[in-house]
Fold:
Amino acid sequence: MGAIATAGIFGILKSLRVIAGSFAIAARTFRQGEAHGQERTDRDVPIVTVLVGVVLSTLAAGVFFSTLGQSLLVVLVGLGLTLVFSFFFTSVAANAIATTPATRSRG
Structure:
């Protein structure tokens, strides 16, 4: 378990430049809108859609945590930790997927 956590931490540290660049692209797209004339496969999900998904997921997690019978402070700390860990896990998982060699079936 410790090796996986250490690999995740190193993966996050190696990905910080990519994460910062992604935030810059998202902010620019949010202000200016998407470039026209892009191929369908080159377009990203609109940032507003992503933000709405994050907000709805956060609300759902908050409702779940509040049903556990804890104080508001515990619910908010749990929600904050959930958001932080899920953000960084997504980055590490995407990096792991991108560096995994594709397998081919032989037949």
In short: Residues 103-107 have pLDDT under 50 and may be disordered. The helical segments are 2-32, 47-66, 72-99.
